[in-house]
Amino acid sequence: MTETEILRGAVAAFERGDMSAADYKKISGGFGTYAERGDKTHMLRLRLTGGEADRGRLSFIAGAAERYNASFLHITTCQTIQLHGLGADAVCALVDEAAEAGIRTRGCGGDHPRNVMASPLTGVDPDEYFDVMPYVRAADEYLAALDDKVKLPRKLKAAFESSDRNETHATFRDIGFVARPNGCFDVYTAGGLGVSPKLGLLTAENIDPADVLMHIRAMVLTFIEHGNYKNRAKARTRFMRDELGDGLYLAEYEKNLKKARGEGIKRVLAEKNVFPAADGAEPPKGERVFCQKQPGLYAVRWIPVGGIVTVKMMRSIADAVSRSRGAALRLVPGGGAYVINCTAGEAGEFLRLTEHDTAVYDIERSAACIGSSVCRSGIRDSQELLRNIIAAAKAAKLPPKSLPPVRISGCPSSCGAHQSGVIGFQGRVKKDTSGTLRPAFAVFVNGNGELGEERMGEAEGVIFSEDIPVMMAEIGKASAPDFFERYPENLAVARNIIAKYANAADPM
């Protein structure tokens, strides 16, 4: 029986009611698909290495969304694209069709190596140390091949960062490679968000980029030897450090690195990129247009609110990329994208195309998971909360920079990376004075993902969902016109306002 036949059998059994949702998830997750809330529709996650989508992949994604009547698409915080609202037959067909188009869904869920992440502007960013994309592609290919040969205790997330911005949170992933000014990587391991979050441990310094696969192999071997196969709640790589202690963990990693060196793993070589010719035109003005390090080429930022993309917009983006000389999409870990390698004329076209579907307020650049209206595991609706906060900010006529981007997760899994945000929210419930459980969110403040400034947000209390938009508008008024202009003073102001709402026994 082929893998696709296994999926088809599981989908059919689940649709008939002969398989529980929990048992179905154990099978479907490995194919990158999950049943949505209500069990009538499905989501399929498309693995885009380093968040990169060229014209061929974009054309496939837009066509698939149209052919199979997807409700919408979602750009995730791990640089993948999810198709939502699919029928059961569509999911099974798309797994094969995506593979034929060079897009994997295998390993996009379940206990598998996940999509390997990259700085979204790597290769074109004037401020980066070097282009990490060749190493990202090699790592993703290596992990995909390894996935058929080993069984991991839980998912494994890898990320590469080309600058100090640490947009991929490479310093707190299961394994992360951070580019340094000397052309080498520092390696961080056994970190992660979610329950019992940890910053990654600096595991190796100044490694030759050609050796990245040896370090990935060492991480995999260490995870297999010391990961917890019995308790899923304690099975991520960061829990190995609790069991072993950091000293013994590092010793075990070093032991497995020596073993990996003896296995003849290939070294990864840098690649020479080919870029389109500039058109010599005057580039458009605006804060969403960025000069690339290639003269005459530009990147255009596009951040659909909440990472939600309509099928119509995906088709428009795909068609515009197809008409270009060599533009491509690079997904942003916060739920947006850049269109890179644009000529000046093309940059203007993409600006116009996205001007009514992109963040204007800083709060609109917030990251949010898909939320409980869609996700069966979700506790609260992250997308609804974000929409309500934005509506409150606009109703209060706040200046665009009065509120910072926030991060929202609908449950403890931290798919919205709430623990890394200046302000973060995690879906919860809270009792009112009558003892009734009401929708609520735990609030975290002062998280930071920037290199050298990493810290997890501090829990400030639990607030009723209906109070949060009003609370955020109050924070925005107190912080206007620019939240970060008086930072950390405005953070202290925000804490005081949050405390007032967190201490409320009933919605205010």
Structure description:
With 508 residues, the chain is of the alpha+beta class. Among the domains are: 132-261, Sulfite Reductase Hemoprotein, domain 1 (2-Layer Sandwich), CATH 3.30.413; 362-502, Sulfite Reductase Hemoprotein, domain 1 (2-Layer Sandwich), CATH 3.30.413. Helix content is 32%, strand content 19%. A 5-stranded antiparallel sheet has the order 1-2-5-4-13. A 5-stranded antiparallel sheet has the order 3-14-15-12-11. The longest helix is centred in the middle third of the chain and has 16 residues, at 246-261. The chain is globular. It starts with a helix and ends in a 6-residue tail after the last helix. One of its GO terms (molecular function) is 4 iron, 4 sulfur cluster binding. Pfam families: NIR_SIR, NIR_SIR_ferr. Residues 110-258 form the Nitrite/sulphite reductase 4Fe-4S domain. Residues 38-101 form the Nitrite/Sulfite reductase ferredoxin-like domain. This is Nitrite/sulfite reductase.
Q: How many strands? A: 20
Tell me roughly what share of residues is in helical segments. Answer: 25-40%
- Poorly predicted regions: none
Number of helices: 13
CATH superfamily of the domain at 362-502: Sulfite Reductase Hemoprotein, domain 1
Largest sheet: 5 strands, antiparallel
For this structure, the CATH topology of the domain at 362-502 is Sulfite Reductase Hemoprotein, domain 1
InterPro entries: NIR_SIR_4Fe-4S, NiRdtase/SiRdtase_haem-b_fer, Nit/Sulf_reduc_fer-like_dom_sf, NO2/SO3_Rdtase_4Fe4S_dom, NO2/SO3_Rdtase_4Fe4S_sf
Protein name: Nitrite/sulfite reductase
Organism: Candidatus Ornithomonoglobus merdipullorum
GO molecular function: 4 iron, 4 sulfur cluster binding; heme binding; metal ion binding; oxidoreductase activity
